[in-house]
Amino acid sequence: MKQILRIEHMEKYYGNKNNITKAIADISFHVCKGEFVGIMGASGSGKTTLLNCISTIDTPSAGHIFLDDVDITEIKEKEIAKFRRENLGFIFQDFNLLDTLTIHENIAFALTINHIASEKIDKQVLSVAKQLGIESILNKFPYEVSGGQKQRCACARAIINSPKLLLADEPTGALDSRSSQMLLDILQSMNNELNATILMVTHDAFAASYTKRVLFLQDGHIFNEIIRGEKTRKQFFNEILDVLALLGGDLSNVR
To answer: For the chain, how many helices (H) and strands (E)?
Structure first.
């Protein structure tokens, strides 16, 4: 299976030589095309720092990050925004939809700024909207649709340009349990039916149980890795809880 993401001996430090904080310490792993991978760890474990470096929001202090064999640590700063638009998709906690744009225009936004022809945009928006069941609301504004429909719109916008990697940072963190499950069902469907490659940072064992593999971080290191394989989601959920207990993490927020 083709490797889409490859992390090689990545390190990230903050501060100066007299006061250095090591957020990431020599991490190496890979994500293959079509995988749904979770990253878990307590606050301060380095998971958000890792995601920020992969998403080109931050830069590693050492090591390399390859996306489809392109070393993103070598991309020039003026080319980063274009690379991000063309290769990465993002799922945010609060959707980040623009209320002044219709659902169609929100989904099409990434294609519009890439100067894709309007007829091609319309065709792609309709295609992804049908896949996510929101073709009937394309002419409505975000404030006119339900929370679940907003979630689907945000997911459609994230995959409209067929990104090589979809990144989700605590996507269920601000949602109630029903909305969380709806979003996770959508992500799982995107992975299974659209073969989307997803990397999700989460503190929630329930959310992580939807993935196919989970990496656990502790103090900037990979502490453990578990693979779902043929396990049921309930069995995988319990296995995740067992690893979190070994980590000594706070389980009070785990559903």
So the answer is: 8, 10
